[in-house]
Amino acid sequence: MSFEKSRSLAYQVRRQALDMTSLGGTAHIGSIFSMADIVAVLYADVLRHDPKNPAWPERDRLILSKGHAGAGIYAALAECGYFPLSELKTHCQNGSHLSGHVSHKGVPGVEASTGSLGQGLPMALGMAMAAKMNGETHRVYCIIGDGECDEGAVWESALIANQYKLDNFIVTIDFNKIQSLTSVEKTIKLEPLDTKWASFGWHVIRIDGHDHAALHAAYDEAQAALGQGKPIVIVADTVKGKGVSFMENNVLWHYRTARGEEYDAALRELEAQKP
To answer: Total domain count for the chain?
Structure first.
C-alpha cells in the first residue's frame, strides 16, 4: 500500500505549519514536524470523525497534550474540512481563534485546550474513564511529548489507566529526543521508555514514527488490543524538525521561527518532498 492519503496530509501539515508559524512569528516548528506523520495517519485513516458534524457523539476523541505544537492540529483540521484553509493565515494574530498553544475555543474539531505539559494526558484519561463508565464505544487518543514525560502527572495517569483497565485509551509518544533547551538524554533520561510503560501495565508498541506503513500497522494493532483490559501506548521514535535538513535534530528549532532565507530554504525542501 502507498498510504497516499496520509502521506499527502503529512506534507500539507508541514507545509501549512511552516507558513503559519512564519506569518504569526511563533515557534515550535520542530515539534510540529516531528509529529506530522502521526497526526496525518490519525486524521486520514484511523480516527472516526466527521468534519461536517464535529460534535458527533460517536466520534473518537484526540487530545494533543504537547499543546505547543497546536499549529499541526489546526493544519490537519483545516485540511480535513473543519474550517476554511484561509483561516490558517490568521494563526497567532490579533482576533484569531488559532492561538499558539492549541485551543478549543471557537475551533471546531479541537476537543480541549492544552499547553501546560502533563495536563492533556490526564484530561484524555478522564474522557476514557467516562466513556467506559457510560458504556460508550468511542476511543480516546492522546499525543504526548517525550519531554512531557518528565511530568509526574504523566506517570500518575499511566498508573490510573492501568488500575481502571482503560482499554479504550491509545496514547502516542512523539519521542523526538529533544526538549526545550537540550536533549532528553541530558535532561532526564527516559530510556528504556517502552519497558517503563510496560512495567506500568500498558500494551506497548514501538515504531519509527515517520514510517507510514509502521504507523498504520501500530494503530491496527492498537485497535485489535481494544477491549483486552490494558491501555495502549505507541512509542514513536521521531526526528525533531523532520522534513527540513537544517532543522532536523537541531534544538534551535524548538523556539526559532523560519523567516527570510530560512523560510525559503525550508519551503524548497518541503516542496521537493511533495507526494
So the answer is: 1
Per-residue confidence (pLDDT) for residue 1, from 0 to 100: 72
Sign of torsion, CA 91 93 96 99? Answer: positive
SS3 annotation, 197-261 = HHHCCCEEEEEECCCHHHHHHHHHHHHHHCCCCCCEEEEEECCCCCCCCCCCCCHHHHCCCCCCH
Q: Is a pLDDT exceeding 80 seen at residue 242? A: yes
4-24 and 29-41 helices cross at what angle (nearest 10)?
A: 150
Taking only the tens place, the pLDDT of each residue in 162-183 is: 999 999 999 999 999 999 999 9
| Element containing residue 91 per DSSP (H, E) | none
Cα separation, 262 vs 66, in Å, equals 25
Q: How far apart are CA 144 and CA 160, in angstroms?
A: 17
Q: How far is CA 135 from the centre of its chain?
A: 26
As given in the structure block, the three cell numbers for residue 176 are 523526538
Do residues 184 and 235 lie in contact, with contact meaning Cβ atoms separated by under 8 Å? no
CATH of the domain at 189: 3.40.50.970
What CA–CA distance (Å, rounded) separates 177 from 135?
38
Containing structural domain, residue 73: 4-272
Q: What is the pLDDT of residue 2?
A: 80
